[in-house]
């Protein structure tokens, strides 16, 4: 098997969509990033350019390769136009089943026959998303991790109808990006989201109970278990609104052990969503850098 059509469409110009678009464009794929928000696509293009330019500055990317990667990435507001003739679509829009089904049902008829349709969902059902298109066997989960240009894992998620061929093709794309892929049978939270949600939720319970400071909880996981980032830092990066949505889904499907910590609910209600909002468990400056000593204190919860 080999990839003969290298046109890829990535839907959603948020943090994940930007990272996925960079991964494909920098790996030789003609990549179209789709979002109706022009400000979001402008920000995405700037972010991709910065990753490539930083790679050149650090000696990890050749200057010509960086410029070629930038040239392979374009943006488009109209999904139907972007999907024309594409062999792969990766949707990374909001974690809402109806929205995801609308995206894939709009794109599928415009793509080449038998095109692979992938969803980056971390919690929703690949099987349900696949019902929105003909040939649901070509729908597969491709769950990337943030930041995409640094994280090597991709979870390939097999829905009820997903064919062996679709999984093999998804793995081929992952290989082309230099990623390591694992195959997961569809289950709430897959492998990583399920474990990460429980870890982050438990860390928030400990913070709420005053077991340790936010800084010390994160240090415990980084230094004691060699995690690259503590669970509270990671929650701030991912966004506590996203974390809460995943926890509520897992709670409804897997039971009480995933009941969201009240502190997460309180933070989301108050707008402390994490780094993207300037404040989560920690506070951040205008450059997105964490302000030392700014972790939430048990005494004020």
From TrEMBL:
Signal peptide: 1-23
Domain of life: Bacteria
Family annotation (Pfam families): 3HCDH, 3HCDH_N
Gene3D superfamilies: N-(1-d-carboxylethyl)-l-norvaline Dehydrogenase, domain 2, NAD(P)-binding Rossmann-like Domain
Ranges where the 3-hydroxyacyl-CoA dehydrogenase NAD binding domain occurs: 7-186
InterPro entries the record matches: 3-OHacyl-CoA_DH, 3-OHacyl-CoA_DH_NAD-bd, 3HC_DH_C, 6-PGluconate_DH-like_C_sf, 6PGD_dom2, NAD(P)-bd_dom_sf
Assigned keywords, A-Z: Oxidoreductase, Plasmid, Signal
Coiled coil regions in record: none
Keyword Magnesium attached: no
Domain 3-hydroxyacyl-CoA dehydrogenase C-terminal: 191-284
Name of the protein in question: 3-hydroxyacyl-CoA dehydrogenase
């Amino acid at each position: 098997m080999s990839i003969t059509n290298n046109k890829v469409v990535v839907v959603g110009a948020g943090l994940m969509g930007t990272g996925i678009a960079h991964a494909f464009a920098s790996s030789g794929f003609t990549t179209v990033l789709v979002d109706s928000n022009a400000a979001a696509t402008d920000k995405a293009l700037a972010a991709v350019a910065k990753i490539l330019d930083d790679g050149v500055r650090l000696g990890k990317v050749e200057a010509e390769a960086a410029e070629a990667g930038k040239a392979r990435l374009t943006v488009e507001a109209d999904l139907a136009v972007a999907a024309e003739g594409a062999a792969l679509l990766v949707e990374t829009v909001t974690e809402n089943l109806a929205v995801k089904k609308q995206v894939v049902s709009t794109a599928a008829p415009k793509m080449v026959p038998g095109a692979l349709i992938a969803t980056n969902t971390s919690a929703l059902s690949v099987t349900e998303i696949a019902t929105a298109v003909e040939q649901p066997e070509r729908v597969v989960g491709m769950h990337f991790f943030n930041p995409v240009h640094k994280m090597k894992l991709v979870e390939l998620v097999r829905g009820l109808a997903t064919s062996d061929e679709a999984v093999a093709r998804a793995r081929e794309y992952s290989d082309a990006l230099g990623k390591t892929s694992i195959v997961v049978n569809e289950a709430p939270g897959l492998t990583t989201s399920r474990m990460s949600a429980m870890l982050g939720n438990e860390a928030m319970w400990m913070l709420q109970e005053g077991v340790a400071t936010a800084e010390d909880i994160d240090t415990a996981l980084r230094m004691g278990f060699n995690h690259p980032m503590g669970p509270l830092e990671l929650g701030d990066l991912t966004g506590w609104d996203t974390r809460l949505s995943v926890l509520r889904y897992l709670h409804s499907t897997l039971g009480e052990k995933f009941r969201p910590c009240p502190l997460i609910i309180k933070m989301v209600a108050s707008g402390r969503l994490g780094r993207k909002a300037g404040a989560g468990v920690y506070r951040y400056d205008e450059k997105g850098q964490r302000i030392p000593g700014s972790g939430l204190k048990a005494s004020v919860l």
